[in-house]
Amino acid sequence: MLEPTQQPLYGGVLLKAKDILDFILESDTPPSLKEISDNVPMTKSTVYKILQTLEYVGFVRCLGEDKRYYLGTVFLSYAQKTLGTFDINLVAQPYLTKLRDITNETVNLGILDSNEVVLLAKLESPNSVNLVSRIGKGMMLYSSAMGKAILSTYPAVKLNQYLATTKLVPLTANTITDKQKLKANIQLTQAQGYAIENSENQQDIFCVGFPLVKNNRIYGAFSVSAPRYRVKQTNLDLFIKEGRKAQQEILAAI
Description:
Distance between the termini: 18 Å
Radius of gyration: 23 Å
Low-confidence stretches: 1-5
CATH superfamily of the largest domain: GAF domain
Number of domains: 2
Largest sheet: 6 strands, antiparallel
Strand order of the largest sheet: 5-4-3-8-7-6
Number of helices: 9
CATH class of the largest domain: Alpha Beta
Shape: elongated
């Protein structure tokens, strides 16, 4: 159901059609005409007329002797087009800007590219220090907060495959190079919902990373970065609290 709006909307039938499509989408099994009309705010005859039109344009299919309604395959084309033009940076920017302003620390946004996380955006804080990260730079998944956040979303088989085929080269004295320790670290990240990077990718830099995953698709990850000497328990609690909030807001906007 659509949320109420202050502006008058044009095309009431379109809104009714969306209610029908939403119900079909959310149903565990393809619904019948009766099941649809029992669950949307319109008469059975209205539902039937709209379904006929939706079927004509390919938005739904009516199949089987019991006439069950399925979403049309045309939505696959729409989905592919949407994914091809989707810009996570554009969606995430306002929430990451707010996160930077609240924490007063640098906020980064990255996307997965093979076995690296590539820095897509970097929102510098007023208290910024010299981070070696730059736009377009790739970072190892095993050593960076964003990378470990992404690894925490991998199914067990995929994570084991990554560990088996990746050489853990030390970047600092704190880089985790033992595969069992890294696996335990990733499992902890998965349990708590965020990744901690304690001078593992760059000396004396502390980061908290959050994955951006929705409907089993990895959109990327973001992190809050600060010099280690500036991160106390109070700061860390703030990073986690506000990072989770930004994560929820971004995923809701996707």
